[in-house]
Write a structure and sequence with these properties.
Helix content is 75%, strand content 0%. It has helices at residues 2-11, 17-24, 27-42, 50-66, 78-82, 86-118. Helix 1 (2-11) crosses helix 2 (17-24).
């Protein structure tokens, strides 16, 4: 196992330890984690009929697949990855980040210029 960890880390040098864990976790472990997450949500409430429980499970599955960002998927949803939208979303986020940084630089320079003109 240690050899596999080292080999995986060397193959994916630019990834975080959490991202590396994705390559090392077996399929069964991921499913067990998913079920534990679902169980933790379902145990928060009482369900008075099987239909109520089924509806809550459906809500959880929808949330998990379509709304919850997954760190191991670069903070996109499983549905985004499945439908091939992940790269576009990540590019858009990077573009917004750069625009925000540039705008902050402009505002900072304006502030400095104003302070210099006052003194």
């Amino acid at each position: 196992m240690k050899k596999k960890v080292v080999e995986t880390a060397l193959e994916h040098l630019d990834e975080s330890p959490r991202e590396l864990a994705w390559y090392l976790t077996d399929t069964q472990g991921k499913i067990e984690r998913y079920h534990r997450s679902m169980k933790n949500i379902l145990l928060l409430d009482n369900y008075y009929s099987p239909d109520d429980l089924k509806a809550e499970i459906a809500r959880f599955v929808d949330y998990y697949n379509h709304r919850r960002y997954h760190e191991s998927l670069a903070n996109v949803t499983p549905a985004d990855v499945y439908h091939g939208r992940a790269a576009e979303i990540l590019e858009k986020r990077e573009r917004i980040k750069q625009e925000t940084i540039n705008q902050r630089r402009i505002e900072y320079r304006k502030m400095i210029a104003m302070r210099q003109s006052v003194s």
